[in-house]
Amino acid sequence: MTDVTSAPRELRKGANVAIRDLGGELGGLTVFLDSRGHDGETIDADVSVLLLDASGKVRSSADFVFYNQPIALNGAVHLRDKLVPEPDSDEAAAGWSSDVVTLELDDVPQEIERIVVAASLDASTGRTFGDAAAVRLRLQRSSDAADLLVFVIEDVTTESALVFGEFYRRDEDWKIRAVGRGYQEGLAALVTEHGIDVSEEAEEPEESDSPAVTEEAGVEPAPAEDVIAPPAPPMPEVLEEDPGAATPATPAKRSVSVRRPTRAPRLPADWNASIPADDGNDWQAARLFPVAGIGSGEEQERRATSALLAVMSMVREFGAALTGRCGAPRGTITTYIEVPFGQDEEAYRPDGVIQVRRGTREWTALVEVKTSTGRLNVEQIEKYVEIARARGYDAVITISNELAGGDADHPVAVDRRKLRKVSLHHLSWDQIRAEAVLAARHRGVADATQGKVLEEFIRYMSHARSGMGGLGDMGPSWVKLRDAVKSKTARASDKATGEVSARFDELIQHLGHHMTGLLGVEVQSLAPREAPDHASRRQQLADSGLMFGRLKVPGAVDVLVVGADLRADKASAAITIGAPRGDTRPLTRVNWLLRQLPDEAKDSIRIEAHMAGPRAVSTAALLGKARQDPSCLVPEEQREIKAFTISLEVPLGSKRAAGTGTLIGSVKGATTTFYADVVQHLRPWVAKVDG
Predict the structure, then answer these.
(1) What would the pLDDT profile of 560-584 be if each residue is shown by its tens digit?
(2) What is Dmax (Cα atoms) for the chain?
(3) Where does residue 125 rank: exposed (0-12), middle (13-18), buried (19+ CB within 10 A)?
(4) Rounded to an integer, what distance in angstroms lies between the CA atom of residue 451 and that of residue 449?
(5) Which of 213, 406, 561, 562 has a CA-to-CA distance to 691 between 20 and 30 Å?
(6) Residue 79 pLDDT
(7) In whole angstroms, what is the distance from residue 121 CA to residue 318 CA?
(8) Signed CA dihedral, 344, 347, 351, 352: sign only
(9) Cα(19)–Cα(140) distance, integer angstroms
């Protein structure tokens, strides 16, 4: 390998260099497309990659990597999450942001001769790359994050799409060329030049008073084969597609939609599949992480720590996701277990240590782990913070099944004065599981073997004996509070009321992590956190037995409101969607909503139509009745309908633990079922533009 100096090679527009001359002949490369605005303002660009054959065109739409399709060639080309500089850093102050692509050039099939790396801006914003203060391409070696090359693009003006550079084959070697070519017409013009037809978006359906509408009249049909459609997360069989396989009898379509996703992501088809029945044999599949032999809680914690830290260091995508949440740079991860330290003439042994190296920088964190019902100890955590501060380490990370309820950032209240030089972070097993599922099944793991290791770790976490199951019950005060609410003797000042209210906030976080794993997007819990609101919610729980929280799903029409009514013994989920505006009749607005709800949606779903005006007036009906007679939701005097609230109620379990017949199980079931039946099908009304 050629020696590489600390300074990266600088390229000018049109220049090229062989990858092997940069010290990157192994093919593992990370491409950064950096941009920044003026006065610290960021430029929100979208990166895309085109894989071209000898004709200079893509072979099919599978060779187009962008925000609707982030992986190609079994992970050889992978669009990563946008990289935002660390807070308070010089890069953050300057407004830099980076889009990231990883390339494994050795895994690119021979018929791919050029790899074009570009970025584009959303046309609706009216912005161009000329609005940027600086635009550049950087190249790193993935194995050690060594900077190899930088190309600063200086002559951009009104372009809304820009080719930064391209990788191309020459005499069996890969080279990179600094391009810097722009397109005023945007991403559509760029991809059309390289063999992709941009599909026209479907027209909005004509308004109709009839609820019986065919696919042609407004229900979005399934996308044609090989046409990229916005809604669904990529399925494994799509990610494993081999573009180099024999050409099928029917040529693959190249038509794509470059519209950004605006619909809620869909649940996988088997989200509620049951476990297959026992086939009568006693064979058990071999486990990479066995649960046999787990006895004491100490052994459970030791195995959980060792398995987690080993997988973090082995599976780069998973390790980077977790350490990134704790403030670490993206780099090479090394992990250790039970490292001894001496402090104040005493011996201490944290459960683990994580080190991340990027160039000359080294980030170190001490790790404390609890499993099952183990609780974090404030004295122990504060001692680890002292050890970290004395040695110049960066962070202390705690891991347990606890979730920070109420208005806390951490399950344990640590003296904030001790955290001036050492940051404290908490990762719940729920959060870790969600990150593992995101990496393994949605974002993708470049190395197939590492992907199997991560799947085995998910399997281990899901076993009851692992102690990594996440939120397990509603807390020791649950039964007391439940009975007090039913007898109307609960008070807002009672300790049990506050504890159960905070535990319900934890349940909302648990639901967010659960839905993140199912949908493949970051679902954010929005349980109210301000102290005055907590007081009012404790009062509401004591007075009426009501608890609620909110989930924000990217692409959904609104936040998803999740609730539990202890008096009525009901769990609920609800969402509100704005009605069509303009000169449309109330019945037309009702039918517009009914068309979006699938046939399998339960008749017991409730629809409430809210009227415009100063007074809170509404009509309501169950979905079954509304389907038979949509006019039952039409208000008297044909008043304007401004919005609809759709909700589902199911029986509320009364048991403390998780599972069937419990509050946790019934709230989770109501949320997931409602999402499947309603939320993922809803699209906001969009006004037509004449001409």
Answers:
(1) 999 999 999 999 999 999 999 887 8
(2) 83
(3) exposed
(4) 5
(5) 213
(6) 85
(7) 29
(8) positive
(9) 11
